[in-house]
Amino acid sequence: MTIVSVGALTTAVAAPSLAGSPPPHARTRAALEAIVEQGTPGVIAEVMTGGRSWTHTAGVADLGDGRPRASGEKFRIASMSKPFTAATLLKLEAAGELSLGDSVEKWLPGVVRGERYRPGKITVRHLLNHTSGIFNYNNDDGFRARYAGDEFDKHRYDTVAPRELVRIALAHPAVFQPGQPGRWEYSDTNYVLAAMIIEKATGHRYEDEVERRLIEPLGLTSTSVPAGSPEVPRPHARHYSTLFEDGPDAKVRDVTEFNPTVAWGAGQVISTTGDVNRFLSLLLRGKVLPPRQQREMFATVPVQGEDGHGGPDDRYGLGIRRFKLKEGCWVWGHGGMIPGSASRTAATGDGRHVLTMNRNGDWGEQELEDAAVQAEFCSGSA
């Protein structure tokens, strides 16, 4: 199957516009439809603002039967899981069970060993804000080859232990020393180690702690942490991927089912646009963490250069990013990509205006997602 442009099928709930004025979210709607016109099978977005919700869908949930995308669909949120992992650790700190200044060696003795690594100097905070210097296992050529092209079907149901992911990363030298001034590099390995620390500190599974400390008390009824289950709970769109193959003739494959242990604490959560909006809004409004941990989460470090997850002027806190959309226009949020699912969530600093979007295809230009977020939040664009 080759990538084809899928005709836009749209639904939206919005207040009527005044005569002669554009409908609400008109530019956001246009930007979302442009994503489908470029070749993504389908997209769904939900905006929460002023106590009201607006949803827009375009394209299809299933390339086989042409079923349109629909509100309420569940999807793999990928690295948008990182705020969940970070907030769980911060709740543990608030309860006095650990400290952000604790070393990785204290909680995981003997786990981090390799060329130029100093585990006694790497802290929990370094993990959460990506200043640890630990290599990203997702950048290992051998690891990526397991899930590229035809190899994916051989490995899609494999369970991968967290220590194996860490072992893959530590076969590479440290990228820099922990907390080294002027250095920052996004690494999923950081969040695998963070989830391992959650398990060591509590004696419980990472998945259970996220559900007990965040998902259940916040009423995120459509959110789950699936452990090794390869299934996406219904209702959901099919998830499609080109599996690292490029070009107009790249084969599009259905990757809806696969074992998400390859992402674990870095990207395992499944949710909906509505639940992610609720979580991010509550987080920004100070309804999730005590004041001290709130300040810690939103204390940022500069992002050094373009890393594929945002722009060079962005800043990163603990599992959350401050995106510069254009001059004078900033939002808090995160992006996420896992085979078959690409997502973004963004919000104003007061948490009163939130957008979460998902496309059920992982190819295409990130700039089109950026355009949709910019259209919603930047003055004169929404």
UniProtKB/TrEMBL annotation:
Query: What InterPro entries does UniProt report for this protein, alphabetically?
Result: AmpC-like (IPR050491), Beta-lactam-related (IPR001466), Beta-lactam/transpept-like (IPR012338)
UniProt superkingdom = Bacteria
Instruction: Please list which residues make up the signal peptide.
Output: 1-19
Domain Beta-lactamase-related span(s) in chain numbering = 30-364
Q: Name one GO molecular function term.
A: hydrolase activity
Pfam entry (one): Beta-lactamase
Write the record's keywords in alphabetical order, separated by commas: Hydrolase, Signal
Q: Does the keyword Hydrolase apply?
A: yes
What PANTHER family does the record point to?
D-ALANYL-D-ALANINE CARBOXYPEPTIDASE, D-ALANYL-D-ALANINE-CARBOXYPEPTIDASE/ENDOPEPTIDASE AMPH
- What this protein is called in its record is Class A beta-lactamase-related serine hydrolase
What species is given as this protein's source?
Actinomadura rubrisoli
Q: What is the lineage of its organism?
A: Bacteria, Bacillati, Actinomycetota, Actinomycetes, Streptosporangiales
